[in-house]
Amino acid sequence: MKNICSILCICLLCLACNKQPANNKEVFFKGTDSYQREVVLENEPLRVVSFSQAVTEVIYLLHAEKKLVGISKFCTYPPETESVPKVGDLLNINVESVLQQRPDLIIVGSVVSKSTVEKFEKAGIPVYCLKEEKRLADLPNLVRMTGKLLNKSAEAEVLAKEYTEKITRAKSQGHVSGKTVYYVVGFGATGDFTAAGNTFIHDIITLAGGKNIGRELTTWNVSREFLFQQNPDCIFIREEDCGNFCHTKPYTELEAVKSGHVYPIPSGWIDNLCPRNFNAVDYISAKLQDSIR
Predict the structure, then answer these.
(1) Which of 115, 91, 117 is nearest to 105 (CA)?
(2) Is residue 11 predicted with pLDDT exceeding 50?
(3) Degrees to nearest 5, angle at CA 203 with 199 and 208
(4) Can you name the residues that pair with 48 across neighbouring β-strands?
(5) CA-closest candidate to residue 208, choices 158, 166, 240, 257
(6) Using alpha carbons only, what angle is made at residue 75 by residues 169 and 122, rounded to the nearest 5 degrees?
(7) What pLDDT sits at residue 293?
(8) Helices (H) then strands (E): counts for the chain
C-alpha cells in the first residue's frame, strides 16, 4: 500500500512540474508601441486594418496584402488598394466601419489620437501604434516592425537591408551638384513652408546631391524674405501645385521660376516617409544634373 501511495505522489509531482503556468503561454508577438503601450498578439493576425500610408505600402511589398481588410482613405498606393475597404481618414476614423471588418489587428500611425486607440481596445481589438519616423535612415526600422507584426520578418529583413544599402551607396557616391534646392511644402496666403534640416525630405534632397535651403531651420515655416534671399537654383513642388506656383506673384520673380528650373514631383514620392522616397532621390538627382548642363 505504501508503494502504491509513493508511486501516486511521484506521478502527481511530475504532472505538476510539467504543467506550464497560464501566464507563460507562448504568444505570437509582444512589444511596446510608440504610445508606450504593451501590445500582445496571441496569434498571427489574419485580418488587418492599416491607418498608415507607409505601412500599407510596405504590406504590399511584403506580399501580405491578403491580410488587409481595411485602410485609410489616404492609403492610395499601390493602385491595388482601390479594392480594399476605406474605413475613414487619420482624424475621422469610422469605428463602426472598422469593427465591421472584424480585424484581429489595427495598425495606426502616431498621428491617430490615443482616444481612438482606446475605443478599439475597449472593443477587444489589438492596436499597434507604429511611430511616424522623421529620417530616411529610420525607414528600415518601420519595415522590420511591420514584418514582425505580420509574420513576414524574413521578407522584411531583405527589404530593410536593401534600403540601408541604397542610403549607404548614395552617401558614398557623394553626388554633390552644388545646386541649392527649395522644396515647396506650402505656399500662398497661408504662408510659405519647406523642409527643415531635421526631416526625411532634407535627407532626400541631400542624398540626391542638392543643398537644401531649409537645412538650418528647425520648423516647417519659412519667411518670404528668407526665400528670396536664398533665391534657390532649383525648386521641387507637388505635381498638382506646380502650375499655380509658377504663375503666382511674387514667386514669378524667383530665378528658378524665370529659368524654368521648377520641377513637378509626385507627392507620394516625397510627402511621406515610405519606400518611394528612393524614387524621389533618383528624380531630384537627375534634374539637378540636367540643370548643370
Answers:
(1) 117
(2) no
(3) 150
(4) 68, 105
(5) 166
(6) 115
(7) 61
(8) 12, 12
